[in-house]
Amino acid sequence: MNKQDLIAEIENLKNVITDASISIWNNPEISGEEKFSSDLMKDILKSNEFEIHEINNVDYAFYAEYGQGSPVIAIMGEYDALPGMSQKKDTKHNPVIEGGNGHGCGHNLLGSAAMGAVLAIKNYIKQDNVKGTIRFYGCPAEETLNGKVEMIRENAFDGCDVALSWHPMNVNTPIYNSYLANNSIKFKFNGTSAHAAAVPHLGRSALDAVELMNTGANYMREHVIDKARIHYTITDAGGPPNIVPKEAESWYFVRAPHRKDVTEITDRLIKISEGAALMTETEASHKYVAGCYEMMPNKVLFDLTYKNMQELKGPDFTLEELQFADEIQKTVSVHQVEGDINNYKILEKYSMHKNVVSKEVAQEMYLTGSSDSGDVSWILPMNCFLTACWPLGINPHTWQATSMAGSEAGQKGMLYASKVFASIAYDLLNDSSLVESAKKEFSDKTKNNKYVMPLK
Question: Under a CB-based contact definition with an 8 Å cutoff, are residues 362 and 387 in contact?
Answer without folding.
Answer: no
